Amino acid sequence: MAEMNDLLSHAAQQSYPASCLYVVATPIGNVADMTYRAHHVLSRVDCIACEDTRNTAHLLQQLGVVKPLIAAHQHNENEVAQKIIQRLMQGESVALVSDAGTPAISDPGARIVDAVRHAGFTVVPVPGASAVITALSASGLLNDQFHFAGFLPARAGPRDTVLKTLSRLTATLVFYEAPHRITDTVEALNTLFPSSRKMVLARELTKLFEEVHRCELGEATAWLSDNAHRQKGEYVILLEGATANQDADLLEAKRVLAILLESCSVKQAASLAAQLTGQKKNALYQLALEMHNGDEVNP
Ligand code: SAM
Fold it and tell me: Does the beta carbon of 131 lie inside 6 Å of ligand 1?
């Protein structure tokens, strides 16, 4: 208990100016991941802007904090930003939280922060949980670089266009995914990326049924269908970036397709190239189509 009081007194030692917006991270599952500073800040601000007032009221109840709440979701960010600025002009301090994790990371908040900064007020980050960093930390993927792609578009066409632009990146790719789309998204990745890429499926992080599963992309669908629970819950998907071997495979595929496209249709070229190179027909078809249309992106 003495140690806990000590930590709380550390939280109080930093200066907490008035007329300031505090961007406060909250837990992504386990409420005990709330930081001392986050608790301290939420206890001392004049009001809290939050994504869903019911969720935040529940969190505050667990923390024993009572504060006025302002709803700040993706449809009213500009309007709420003005309300917050009015309060800051009156010398109040305001905290911004989202439902879980760090505000403005695939969550509302960026527009509010932008407007508050434009109005000349200080914005102070209060760091804590974020699903992207939590998943990466337990992945064991040996790459210092990662590309956070967030949520992919819901419709297959725009989704695949985004995936194609990412397929050349050497950084680890990070996606957020809603439970009802996890299987579709993994299948789309498996169609467009080499099955041998390492993958990590981080599910229900910091919660009771947490799983951080590492496999090859080609094995992921089987893992998901192995247990009905795995088609539920929140996921972070990590996918190994492009490697030198994969670059060599792509160059070889292009060389073979270029020859075949001189005398075959796109479909035939993809089919023959798949037999000749052992690479995936679907991916070769996409590549052949791009080469045929002249909009292929070079490595
Ligand atoms: N702002 C949050 C953050 O900092 O991580 C992200 C909010 S975003 C609306 C919600 C998505 O984050 C989920 O669909 C899932 O992809 C990921 N996520 C959030 N909590 C998670 C958890 N406990 N386990 C796995 N993924 C999680």
Answer: yes
Pocket test for ligand 1, best of 176, 182, 212 (most atoms within 8 A of CB): 176
State the average pLDDT over residues 66-75.
95
Domain membership of residue 299 (yes or no) is: no
Whole-angstrom distance, CA of residue 190 vs CA of residue 196: 9
Q: How far is the CA of 133 from the centre of ligand 1 (A)?
A: 10
Give the CATH number, domain containing residue 125: 3.40.1010.10
Burial 90-104 (b: 16+ CB within 10 A, else e): eeebbbbbbbbbbbb
- The verdict on 224 and 166 lying in the same domain is yes
Residue-number span of the structural domain to which 266 is assigned: 244-293
Q: Does the CB atom of residue 175 touch ligand 1 within 6 A?
A: no
CA-nearest of 182, 212, 183 to 198 is 212
CA–centroid distance, 195 to ligand 1, in Å, is: 25
Number of domains the chain is built from: 3
How many alpha carbons fall within 13 Å on the CB side of residue 103? 31
pLDDT band at 299 (very low <50, low <70, confident <90, very high): very low
Contacts of 90 (CB under 8 A, 6+ apart): none
- Residues 155 and 229 grouped into a single domain: yes
186 falls within a domain: yes
What pTM did the predictor assign? 0.86
Atom of ligand 1 nearest to the CA of 207: 23
281-293 and 156-166 are packed helices; what angle lies between their axes, rounded to 10 degrees? 90
Q: Which of 7-11, 119-123, 211-215 has the lowest mean pLDDT?
A: 7-11
The answer on 172 and 148 residing in a single domain is yes
